[in-house]
Every structure is written in structure tokens, then in C-alpha cells.
């Protein structure tokens, strides 16, 4: 099988990078600028009585901070769980997501909203506009898109300053 390299393959190198592997570089500042650490003094609380509170400053946490050796061959149940799909979803509760599920062999359906909860075999998405919760089978989840809501708020504010009015 022929190996093709492009700007996204792990062995490609951007101009000026020399022979450094692209997968060993820290790309975190490429997309999101550094921001102060989120205070952990008051963690988000689960709502009671049917009201939903959102995380005050949700941030995307896409790294699992595990070494390559642990990912390739976890030695404990905790290491295996830390590198799992469920763990990654759990780290991002409170963020806006679009989840795409496989239906049958070729059909897909997408649900969007705030990632509210993650269980052993399900995830819950909250849709604020319709005030409803959607509980989804985690095993049919194929793709999930995460959106940085703080950037959306910044964009909305910039558009308002320029005179744009939203439809709602």
C-alpha cells in the first residue's frame, strides 16, 4: 500500500520545522490561544428540579495526557479508562456538541446541544431551545464535533458591535 503524506499526516513537516515529527509537536496554541487556568474552587453542580445550569466557563479538553506507552498497552483498568471514548466525553461535559450516529449500515442522524451527561453506554445532550434532553446510545456514536462556546460568545459580541442583530 502506498503511503501518502500531506500536511496532516504525522510524518509531514512544515517549512522551518526541520526533521521534527509533527505528531510530537505541541499544536495546542495553533488553534486556541493560551488563556488563564479555570478556577476549580467551585465546580459545576448538577441541576435539581429540571433546570439546567451551564458550566460558567466551559473549555475544550481534548488531550488525555497519557504517554504513548500507556495508550498502546495500558496496564491497569484506570489507564484504559483514562484513554477511553467515555473519558474524553466526560472531560467535555458542558460544551456544545454535534453528535452524529450511525443508523443501520449507511444512514446517519445528528443531534446538537450541550453535552449534559455521559454514562457507561449512553450520553445525554440538552437542547436549551426546546428545553429537552436527548439520551443517545454511545455505541452508535460515530463522530462528535465540539464547539468552543466562549469563542461563539466573542463572535456574537463582535457582530453586535458592528451593528448585526440576531434573528432571535
The oligomeric status of these chains comes to single chain
What is the first-to-last residue Cα distance? Answer: 52 Å
Provide the residue-averaged pLDDT: 69
**In total, how many beta strands?**
5
* Shape verdict: globular
Q: How many H/I helices? A: 5
Q: What is the helix content?
A: 10-25%
Task: List the helices and strands in order.
Answer: HHHHEEEEEH
**Strand percentage, roughly?**
15-25%
Q: Give the C-alpha Rg.
A: 19 Å
Task: Write the topology of this structure.
Elements: H1 28-31, H2 68-72, H3 77-82, H4 85-91, E1 96-103, E2 107-118, E3 122-127, E4 132-137, E5 141-147, H5 149-161
Antiparallel strand pairs: 1-2, 1-5, 2-3, 3-4
